[in-house]
Amino acid sequence: MSLNVRNxxxxxxxQIVYDIGFDVIELHxxxxxxTDAGYLRDLKKDLARKGLPLGYIGVSxxxxxxxxxxxxxxxxxxxxxxxxxxxxxxxxxxxxxxxxEDCDDEETLWPPMIEAFKEVAEYGYESGILVGxxxxxxxxxxxxxxxxxxxxxxxDHPYFTHILDTGxxxxxxxxxxxxxxxxxxxxxxxxxxxxxxxxxxxxxxFYQIDSGVEEWLDYPRVLEILRGVDYNGCLSIVxxxxxxxxxxxxxxxxNPKYLVNTKGRKTAVVLSMKEYRLLMKxxxxxxxxxxxxxxxxxxxxxxDYREIRAELKKEGKL
Length: 318
Description:
Order of helices and strands: HEHEHEHEHEHEHEEEHHH
CATH topology of the largest domain: TIM Barrel
Strand order of the largest sheet: 1-2-3-4-5-6-7
Number of helices: 10
Largest sheet: 7 strands, parallel
Strand content: 5-15%
CATH class of the largest domain: Alpha Beta
Distance between the termini: 26 Å
Number of domains: 2
Protein name: Xylose isomerase-like TIM barrel domain-containing protein
InterPro entries: IolE/XylAMocC-like, Xyl_isomerase-like_sf, Xyl_isomerase-like_TIM-brl
Domain Xylose isomerase-like TIM barrel: 16-243
Structural class: alpha/beta
Organism: Geodia barretti (Barrett's horny sponge)
Shape: globular
Number of strands: 9
Radius of gyration: 21 Å
CATH architecture of the largest domain: Alpha-Beta Barrel
CATH superfamily of the largest domain: Divalent-metal-dependent TIM barrel enzymes
């Protein structure tokens, strides 16, 4: 489970995930406040006490950089493979190559990228850590299923695998580079079908859910594809609402429960739709919040949701 919480520490995010009741947590490398052994031990203990396995650690590398900079990118990935091993995390996420603006032929990016993949995959193998390629962004060389399969086949290493991002194949309205509109000539669902058999981890993106149902992606279709290949791994919930910075109330359709973050407070809870509606009746200025009135940005909820929920249960309304 992940949210756009760039200013939230790994421990604080773990508390959110624990409060919601999810089974697994994933962390980007930037969420770690330190790479010192003492900090990592404390974080590992905290996750264990919360019963939260670390699904993967995300690294934001770019093998579209000049080849002279690839050793630095490889070293970054290796560093986080070492940390993943320390944290008992089985998987490190990597990206492929973002095509530079001055690149006339992106085919030239492939050979050095594949060599780098082979090197980090072998390093991961030595530590027992899988390296997972995540499809991401229309401007990435692995923008569609065929390109992901090519990368997997050319790397040809048992510890180089695939992290499937449902919203970041070209053709998806959520993919970076064509946000909110489909990319002509690409079918994101065809790409999902191509790569799903190779996925060890799936990131499910949510973009437009004001209606209570994700509108940009067809999740019944996506889930049918995953069932068809007997996928039995994590389904990571990644909420990337295009209006996230403005909203004070955030909701996720999680069959059929909702994540609620009220009035900008760093609190979260899983509610049924009935609970959600009752809770909203007890929050002040709901109309202003829904209208994304800038005036409420500095306000805080007058009462904590746990207090309100307890009262509703006591009254027999839940």
